[in-house]
Fold each of these.
Amino acid sequence: MTDPAALQRPTRRRLTDTLLAALVPVVACVLALSGLSLWTVYGNAGTPARIAVSDGRVFLPTGDTPDTAAFFRITNSGGSGDRLLKVTSADVDGAAAFGRHRMTGTSSGAAETVASVAVPAGESIAMSPYGLDVILPANADWKVGDLVEFMLHFERSGAVRTLAVVDRPGQEGS
């Protein structure tokens, strides 16, 4: 007959198995916390997006063209990405949309509408007639040099107010 007290005593094998079973989650937690600590020490965690908008330009409408384009430089100096959702202006009658022009075999290239624009952390986006732009209804009253107020609406940073100067197409940087 076996002694019931002997069955209750832990054996070396049972203790080893129990310690190994407990060690695996402890090691996993220590590794995860170490990685997150390093991520934080190097400034990559918890830094929100910091959006700045500059170099706003809007093309003077030409002829009977119902639409025109606006361009901005968007800089995100923060540690998290953001997304430009829409652009609005009280000086524009109608909704604006994002357009992206891709060069194809033809001289004009192909244009597509884009729902939103990613603004990665630590990067800058320079809109241009040859890439990303804002397509908006033209205002016949605009003159070269006029300032047009825009609100750029971001997913995390909220609305950012900026001005764009009315310029003739082909006069980049003037």
Note: The CA atoms of residues 51 and 66 lie 31 Å apart.
Amino acid sequence: MGQLISGSGTKLISLQNTVENILVQPIRFSEYSIIFVDGGEGTFYSDFGAFTFNGPMLFFATPMQLIYIEAAIAIQYTVLQFHGDFYCMEYHREEVACNGLLFNNIYIEPSLQLNLADHKSFSQLINQITEEFSMPTPSDIVLKSLLQLFLAKSSQVKNRELDSAVNTIQRDDEMERFKQLLETHFLTLRKPSDYADLLIMAPNTLTKRCSKYFKKTPSQLITERLIVEAKKQLHQTRKTIKEIAYALNFQDEFYFSRVFKKYTNESPQTFRDKTGISIVADLYR
């Protein structure tokens, strides 16, 4: 449907639809991806998770996540993608707080169920982006503004959804405590049994309660949290691979590279080459 390419050949922002069948097989993208499901039913797969849906929906994926859609009933979707060089979420955190909400949050589903009003709003934004791509020379300023509006609206709806969930989902204080412990100790504690001990809980009990509450096992959350941090340091800092490996408490850069590649299918250097280094790497040094 349209794309904007940099002078060096990097895809900065693009829009593709169901006809192009880009999500029928597992695939990894170098860009951030937003999947706007207009209708239909199926399952969205993203790395460790599987999320059943009944459209209209929005799904969000970070660079190099393995994603695909398995349709149960014919679906229609549009994929909006953008590169970190085109729109830096960390740089625009004050305007649009979507990093850690829509993207890079391992504790909540990377999705939004849309009501009729929301569906109409996002459809209009998709139409505006489509119209801009149809221009003889699409404006990167207009496209960036429309993308920011799309992300801001998504964050607004996600926060509303989370506020509503507080009243409908039974809170598990022990699992919220596990979440806090993981955020504090993920660099040093790598086994579920470590957290079970801190919670004074049997490992099997932790696994059962975590799987029910977060829809992921403790092992999955521990690994995802570490990989999210690795991606963050590769994208948002100019640290060497060796320095990042040391910061993440790996015995050496080679072991770090093996673990990272196991879960992303790319080496740390290749990931950095594909996603680029964010402008915040130089702003906050």
Note: The first helix runs from residue 116 to 133.
Amino acid sequence: MTFVYRNANTGQEVPLDERDPCLDQLDNWRIISGPADETATGPADAGPARPSEHDNKAAWINYAVANGMSEHDAKALSKAALVEEFGEEDDDGED
């Protein structure tokens, strides 16, 4: 069983034999593959948190990809366009 973590800032991917509690706590590292039962819980697998408008473009690309956009398309957009597309939270269902 291998867990693969990806750094949202650099794109670096690191395969590990088990979950890493330190990487699980860092906002810029996410589990991108691993055993389904192990990745179904915990902070690193909930998908990346929505970056702030002050985060770098790489963080926004990672967020866009995690939310269904292709990496190619996300990289083609400006940071401003990514923020416009994915930046607003609408948890209460109101506009």
Note: Residues 89 and 95 are 10 Å apart (CA to CA).
Amino acid sequence: MTARADLALVLEAARFAAEKHRMQRRKDADASPYINHPLALANILVSEGDVDDPEVLVAALLHDTVEDTDTTVEELERAFGSRVAGIVAEVTDDKSLAKEERKRLQVARAAHKSNAAKLVKLADKISNLRDIATSPPADWPLQRREDYFHWAKQVVDALRGANPRLEAAFDRAYSDGLASMRGAA
């Protein structure tokens, strides 16, 4: 693909994700627009992970569409290609399973993901930790936030080796976030 085609694909993914998530909000007290989260992932990948693979950036923008909207993997494959659809499928939890089982499987399967899926998952965990530390879900007490941090670290520890810069960013978000939450308690 040309640079122009790559850029067009990334922008189309941002438009598609914005449309699919248009009625969704984050769980923070301000009920931020959900699209801020996939945009944050793409920004983390480029700005902090030095990731320039357009299909990884597209997958980051689309990473929650199958899990949290009526989007199917087949729809993503038609619109964005099999590699993007495959990456999204790798990072999508099976919502038919109980929450604790989904969390267990994220840890168990992390090491076996493709490198592209590991990058998206790393950016997702970095973004989530930062959001929980600075504007947590309104109904999450300190213990639940800390539990999320410790579980996210288990997932990321199994992803290590994919991108040292993103792993370092996660480690900073983890330690700074815990210190911030505990200091505010």
Note: The chain has a mean pLDDT of 96.
